Predict the 3D structure of the following.
Amino acid sequence: MLHANEIPVNEAVVQSLVQSQRPDWASLPLSPAGAGTDNVMYRLGDDLLVRLPRTTAKARSLSKERTWLPRLGPLLTHQVPEPVYAGTPAPEFPLPWSIYRWIDATEVDANSVQDWATFGTELATFVHELHNIDLMGASRADELSWYRGGSLKDCEEDISTYFDDCRTITDNGLDVHALEQLWRAALRLPEPPSPHVWLHGDLRPANLLAAKGRLHAVIDFGCLSVGSPAAEHAPVWDLPEPARQAYWNAMNLDDLTWAHARAWAIAVGIAGLSYYRSTWPAFATECRTRLGTILKDAATR
């Protein structure tokens, strides 16, 4: 349980949901397929994935994915999730839930990718394609107004609180003061003059899948939004340096955008370290590693 208001779910609950709402799939084998900060997942048979939101707030992204993924997917080179069933609330699970096509690929890490420079270029291709898709009448409003597509200044108060908390952690091995200096330096910069575009919103490695050493799919569009693109580039600090450099080169990012992207990477990392250090230590470690990479990278630029 990662959140105070989380709805508990287990295999028996999922089996019951499938039995009552999709009895034609009830005989398919069911097994855990991982979990993230927003959702818990189960594989259903060979070809399906059941995805259940952890909280009421996280459930709001489901209708957004059902609306936009069928429109965006055909315009992208790399595979994205395909919704196939919209589950409805039930006594055993009082939130909407979804079933998607299973994507046969592996989470991106050192075992699934060897040529990181090529991978960085491929990720840039995906981002470039997504950002250049027509907005089709969508605008930065309601469920498409994820905070990472806005201004750094909009979350200054929250991030300052997370910095204060992280300064009390004596074993984080980070120069929190130096990170905050980088963050506040970016706050003083003008916003990059970029038009609003489609944003994935959370391109961390856990949401990237590889096959045969190449980028194969991008998953979890729960943070899909419309906004300014600087924050989209932030997760490249989760990737090895050759991927980061290749991504920068392929995207042709200017120094102002890069500084804002780095600030977003710091903001998300410091928030994750503060929020999840007790409930999900592995994720907090991921955030700590990202922040350490940012400090090392900043020292060489």
Summary: The chain has nine helices and ten strands. The longest strand covers residues 30-35. The chain has two domains: 11-101, 106-300.
